[in-house]
Amino acid sequence: MGLAVSTVYGLGMIALVDDAVIATERLVLRPLQVDDVGEMAVVLADPALHEFTGGAPATLDGLRARYETWVEGSGSPDELWMNWIVRRIADAVAVGTVQATIIDPDGTATALVAWTIGVPWQGQGYAGEAAVGLVEWLIGCGADSVIAHIHPDHQASAAVAGRAGLRPTAELSDGEVVWRRGCLAARLNLDGQSV
Ligand SMILES: CC(C)(COP(=O)(O)OP(=O)(O)OC[C@H]1O[C@@H](n2cnc3c(N)ncnc32)[C@H](O)[C@@H]1OP(=O)(O)O)[C@@H](O)C(=O)NCCC(=O)NCCS
Questions:
Q1: Ligand 1, atom 3: nearest CA belongs to which residue?
Q2: What domains, with CATH codes, occur in the chain?
Q3: CB contact at 8 A, 186 and 110
Q4: Is the CB of 88 under 6 A from ligand 1?
Q5: Which of 8, 117, 133, 179 could form a disulfide with 96, with the two C-beta atoms 3.0–4.6 Å apart?
Q6: Ligand 1 centre and the CA of 180: distance in Å?
Q7: pTM of the predicted model, to two decimals?
């Protein structure tokens, strides 16, 4: 997915998203393409993935429509949608997805991140490894703050966030705890609830 974001969007961050491939020790995160849909429909087929986030697995057509929307983008100059397929480097098998919604309403770029690993590949540290790669990449590209909304009982996702350097705040969003990793500027803009 070639994103000429630095010219299309007014975002203060991200000069290098044309090449938004993120590599970690065992994984490579590549920008999602609509052609990934067949493989991902299988990876995301288990209803257990929705235990804490709600909803149900999408049909193939539903997932294709979603991916087409995601690739098209938000249509807003202040909001950038980025989605990656997480693949094992060893065999190129897709194991999950990560995403970041980046907003920059006032010159302070905030990235809202989320992660999903297919049930057969869970428990091997893939989500934590992908999250570390994603968050470091976002900060390296200029994100002032990275946040995640995590159900208070979702221990695995909380552990993933913690491994990526996010910390729980006192903020709630639709009943989910707001986790945050922020730089000094982001902290100064907040009300003291975050770390
Ligand atoms: C959350 C999710 C991505 C974790 O994927 P994963 O690849 O199994 O995670 P990891 O193997 O990296 O494990 C992450 C941590 O959670 C811990 N963990 C895993 N399953 C756990 C469980 N059922 N209860 C408590 N802790 C658990 C691991 O021990 C690990 O902790 P550590 O880093 O301290 O060792 C996966 O469960 C998932 O896709 N869930 C559905 C989608 C979702 O809810 N995403 C979160 C939206 S923000």
A1: 116
A2: 5-143 (3.40.630.30)
A3: yes
A4: no
A5: 117
A6: 18
A7: 0.89
